[in-house]
Amino acid sequence: MARISYIQEFIDACVNDIAEMLGQDVTILDENGIRISGTGYFNDLIGKPVPEGSFFKKILQTGKPGLVYDMKKSDSQCISCKFRTQCRELATIGFPILKRNKPVGVIGVVSFSAKQKKRMIDDHEKLIRFLSHLSTLLENKLILLELTKHAECEMKENIPHQPDKILFSSIIGYHSSLKDVVHKAQRVANSISTVLIRGESGTGKKVLAKAIHNESKRSKFPFVAVNCAAIPENLLESELFGYESGAFTGAKRGGNIGKFELAHKGTIFLDEIGDMSPLLQAKLLRVLQERTINRVGGNRSISIDCRVIAATNRNLEEMMKEGTFREDLYYRINVIPLTLKPLKERREDIGNFIELFIRKFCNELNKRPMRVDPELKNWLIQYNWPGNIRQLENAIEYMVNMAETEVIGFSDIPDYLLNQEDPMNNQRGFSLEERIFEYEKNILQRYFLNEEYRNNKVLIASELQISLATLYRKLEKYKLVTK
Ligand SMILES: Nc1ncnc2c1ncn2[C@@H]1O[C@H](COP(=O)(O)OP(=O)(O)OP(=O)(O)O)[C@@H](O)[C@H]1O
């Protein structure tokens, strides 16, 4: 999905030209309320979020434009903004940037002098019309970008047997458990036996499956991935096995081949197999045993030749006990089990992933090479990563986008990393005292890294209803990072 920050260069050019033309300051926010561009006063605020409850945040929520010229009035749109009384803006017009009717950003034009304010109020109708055109232009640019990317992906998918770059050597990981998994995978790459990859979401199951395929004799033939959880149950059968003409209402004339046939001589990757319905489990079992499929609505058996790799993050043993996963299918797919550990159990790999992803995103986003502040790196290594490698990858993408210098620091981390309620995430082996320590430290740290509080100890102490002296003591005790 194209985000507003993906057209950053175009936005910067627009903002500067419009500000010059209108004689007012102009700013643009992304879908999270982060200022991604701005002129004059806003220059120093780029990369920072606007306060909760602010006029611009409301526009992001409602998708409605507006004009505010008396921030202090009780019915002003800024009434719930904490920084209302310190605000230097005299008048502001905000207009949503919509993508398919969903707000993905805001354009703001702001007056800081009485003269500018008067001009804004006099001309506000024209200005709103102009912003509406600009917003449409930005929306079109985003949609065009999305369509181009989509077309590129489709082209790549349609090139038969395109070699994929993921090999065993591209799987990052020095932890002994991962080395062991990769070693086993190498040994079975050329076998026809079914592999079952277990692991939490985002641990690299698909990456491993692709490496097995690419390092096997089947690599010249397709690797076909099917996410069994993402396809509605009634469609999954025809998706997997194909259908004949007239098999159901809406079926294509001439029928359609399914993923098993598409993967002929290659590999079929059945992701989230634990989410397959009992009925389909039975059909899949038969296919795996007989190595033939029957298209939906057809009565001819078609033999298949493809390697099956299945993956799941579900506890299949528990599911068998509950009767929601078939025991016979379990034994059929669990021939070569490979388990990927969650990232928090292989912390020695986190540093390498951080370096890898920083390089990747600097490259993709055309940014100069960056590095991470060593203190932040330690913090990231200690973090629990419930979303595993995928979450780490997304967090680094965010940080590379946000960083204004070549050193990524605490001010660049996404808020959601700090908003984790239980920092120990039910890890075993910690006492109540240690847990409470981490819990309190985490709460305080969140306040110090929250832009809204601007490191203001009086404000933080008052919000937490503790004395300033207590706050200072805790600051020292927990060695908190302040922005
Ligand atoms: N060892 C690795 N080296 C480099 N990148 C990796 C590695 N493992 C995973 N990744 C990256 O992490 C992300 C998640 O990987 P992947 O999609 O394979 O996880 P998954 O376990 O299949 O997730 P899910 O169960 O949610 O589908 C991908 O962007 C992938 O490129």
Automatic annotation (TrEMBL):
Residue span(s) of domain Sigma-54 factor interaction: 171-401
Record-linked PROSITE patterns: SIGMA54_INTERACT_1, SIGMA54_INTERACT_2, SIGMA54_INTERACT_3, SIGMA54_INTERACT_4
Pfam hit, one: AAA_lid_14
InterPro entries for the chain: AAA+_ATPase, AAA_lid_NorR, GAF-like_dom_sf, Homeodomain-like_sf, P-loop_NTPase, Sigma_54_int, Sigma_54_int_dom_ATP-bd_1, Sigma_54_int_dom_ATP-bd_2
Regions that span the bilayer: none
Top-rank taxon: Bacteria
Keywords: ATP-binding, DNA-binding, Nucleotide-binding, Transcription, Transcription regulation
Name of protein: Sigma-54 interaction domain-containing protein
